From TrEMBL:
Residue ranges constituting the EamA domain according to the UniProt record: 7-139, 156-288
Record's keyword annotation contains ATP-binding: no
Designated name of the protein: Drug/metabolite transporter (DMT)-like permease
Stretches that traverse the bilayer: 7-28, 40-57, 69-90, 96-117, 124-143, 155-173, 185-203, 215-236, 248-267, 273-289
GO cellular component, one term: plasma membrane
Organism placement in taxonomy: Bacteria, Pseudomonadati, Pseudomonadota, Alphaproteobacteria, Hyphomicrobiales
Protein topology in the membrane: Multi-pass membrane protein
Alphabetic keyword roster: Cell membrane, Membrane, Transmembrane, Transmembrane helix
Subcellular location(s) of the protein: Cell membrane
Length: 303
């Protein structure tokens, strides 16, 4: 399979799982508290990784020792912080606000890469981002863009903005990951996520907000611990390796589309015309950005 096509398939599966993570986070309200969900998902993930990644971790131990702080930092920022902000935001803000704010991740990645590394980008990529953002907005507003004018920022929106910043920073920082097996990378990052979630769950308990999972809560924990915590992170790292953070980050705009489709399948919402139009806009924007991306010579000149 050509590298580009392989990356596209990998990143679409990744964002499908992340769309499910957002739906699961909304379904978790009242069934398990945000920090408890954040912590338990990494208990599940680390247990699985302990079984399957031990040989690779032992082999990569010298490199892990040299880069342990960076690897734990990946888990703290990209895994724990993002999901803690996301799950907390869904307690306070509407789905419309959360979806639109998540769509800001690719633009933040563009800006950070340019400011820090002067990474080349083209007007076509900006145009593609704008097109996908319009599609996301159409989905979030249920086909009536005028409703966006009435949005009010609240505590949840502020938390979503923090989630956008931390995940964009995590994506950009993946360029510094050491040359170790992907199982080792995910395993140590997951350990960092688990360790960094402990103070959060202590804080939640001390404030009286801790809610142990019920049956539905445990189902959500199992889903979050296996798919968003493991499978999607593995695929996203591979996608960034194949086509770089700028191009990979653009696929994040498909999360609201997949989230909408999963909501239709799981909650029984009706498929509307604007859903189809929005999907065309999002996928068309990705295509525009891909076709007009800077070529290797341009990127070399920029650097």
């Amino acid at each position: 399979m050509p590298i580009n096509l392989q990356a596209y398939v990998i990143l679409c599966i990744t964002t499908l799982i992340w769309g499910g993570n957002s739906v699961a986070g909304k379904m978790a309200v009242g069934h398990v508290s945000p920090m408890m969900l954040t912590s338990l998902r990494w208990v599940v993930a680390c247990t699985v990784l302990l079984i399957f990644a031990a040989p690779q971790v032992r082999r990569d131990l010298p490199a892990i020792r040299r880069n342990w702080l960076l690897l734990l930092g990946y888990g703290t920022v990209g895994f724990t912080a993002f999901n803690a902000f996301l799950y907390s935001a869904l307690q306070y803000t509407s789905a419309i606000n959360a979806v639109i704010e998540q769509a800001g991740i690719p633009m933040v990645i563009f800006v950070l890469n340019y400011l820090l590394f002067r990474t080349a980008f083209s007007m076509a990529q900006i145009a593609g981002f704008t097109l996908t953002l319009f599609g996301v907005a159409l989905t979030a507003s249920h086909g009536d863009l005028s409703t966006l004018l009435s949005l009010q920022l609240n505590q949840g929106d502020a938390l979503m903005m923090a989630a956008v910043l931390v995940y964009a920073g995590y994506t950009v920082a993946l360029r510094w990951k050491p040359n170790i097996h992907w199982k080792s990378l995910i395993a140590i990052s997951a350990l960092g996520a688990l360790l960094s979630s402990i103070p959060l769950i202590v804080w939640e308990f001390s404030t009286g907000r801790l809610l142990l999972p019920d049956a539905q809560g445990w189902a959500i924990v199992a889903y979050a611990g296996l798919l968003p915590s493991l499978v999607s992170q593995i695929l996203y790292v591979r996608g960034v390796e194949l086509i770089g953070p700028n191009r990979a980050g653009l696929f994040i705009n498909t999360i609201p589309i997949f989230g909408t489709l999963l909501s239709i399948a799981l909650i029984g919402e009706a498929l509307q015309t604007f859903h189809v139009v929005a999907m065309v806009l999002v996928l068309g924007g990705i295509a525009v950005a891909e076709r007009g991306r800077p070529r290797p010579q341009q990127e070399a000149e920029a650097s």
